[in-house]
Amino acid sequence: MAPASKADKKAVVDAAAWMFNVVTSVGIIIVNKALMATYGFSFATTLTGLHFATTTLMTVILRWLGYIQSSHLPLPELLKFVLFANFSIVGMNVSLMWNSVGFYQIAKLSMIPVSCFLEVVMDKIRYSRDTKLSIGVVLLGVGVCTVTDVSVNTKGFVAAFIAVWSTSLQQYYVHHLQRRYNLSSFNLLGHTAPAQAGTLLILGPFLDYWLTNKRVDAYGYNLASVMFIILSCTIAVGTNLSQFICIGRFTAVSFQVLGHMKTILVLIMGFFFFGKEGLNLHVVLGMIIAVAGMIWYGNASSKPGGKERRSLSLPTKQQKHGSLSDSSEHDGKV
Question: Coiled-coil stretches, from where to where (predicted)?
Answer without folding.
Answer: none
